[in-house]
TrEMBL record:
Entry's Gene Ontology BP terms: mitochondrial electron transport, cytochrome c to oxygen
Designated gene of the protein: COX5B
UniProt-recorded name of the protein: Cytochrome c oxidase subunit 5B, mitochondrial
Short name of one Pfam family: COX5B
Location of the protein in the cell: Mitochondrion inner membrane
Lineage: Eukaryota, Metazoa, Chordata, Craniata, Vertebrata
GO annotation, cellular component aspect: mitochondrial inner membrane; respiratory chain complex IV
Length: 126
C-alpha cells in the first residue's frame, strides 16, 4: 500500500515538473584536451618511456629490425655469452626450424638457407 502511494506521488511529480536539461559532464582535462601518454605517465612507466625516447633499451628487448640477412647486413643476435643457439625459419611458411650454434666473431650462415647471423655482445639490465 505504501509502495503504491509512493509510486503514485512520484508519477505525479514527474508529470508536473519538466526535466531540466542536464549539463554535459566536464572533467578538468576537457578544457585542455586529452593528455598524452608522456604527460600522464608516472613512476617506472615514465622512466621506460624516457629511456626509449633517448634510444636506450632499458629491458634489453632489442626490438627486431628488418635485416637483409646478407653478409653485409646480417641478422643481429644478442647474447650475454660468446655463443647462442639460433633457430632459423628459412622460409616464411616452413614448419620446421633449423637450429644451429652461433659463435662470436664473423657472421655465420644458416646451414639450410644461407641467411647470415652475427652475434653481438649484450649486457643484462641492472
Ligand atoms: Zn635458414
Amino acid at each position: 500500500m505504501a509502495a503504491r502511494l509512493l509510486l503514485r506521488s512520484a508519477f505525479r511529480a514527474a508529470k508536473t515538473c519538466r526535466a531540466a536539461p542536464v549539463p554535459a559532464l566536464t572533467r578538468g582535462m576537457a578544457a585542455g584536451g586529452i593528455p598524452t601518454d608522456e604527460e600522464q605517465a608516472t613512476g617506472m612507466e615514465r622512466i621506460i618511456m624516457k629511456a626509449m625516447q633517448e634510444g636506450s633499451d632499458p629491458y634489453n628487448m632489442m626490438k627486431p629490425k628488418e635485416y637483409a640477412g646478407s653478409k653485409v647486413d646480417p641478422h643481429l643476435v644478442p647474447s650475454i655469452t660468446n655463443k647462442r643457439i639460433v633457430g632459423c625459419v628459412c622460409e616464411e611458411d616452413n614448419t620446421a626450424v633449423v637450429w644451429f650454434w652461433l659463435h662470436q666473431g664473423e657472421a655465420q650462415r644458416c646451414p639450410s638457407c644461407g641467411s647470415h647471423y652475427q652475434l653481438v655482445a649484450h649486457e643484462l639490465p641492472h
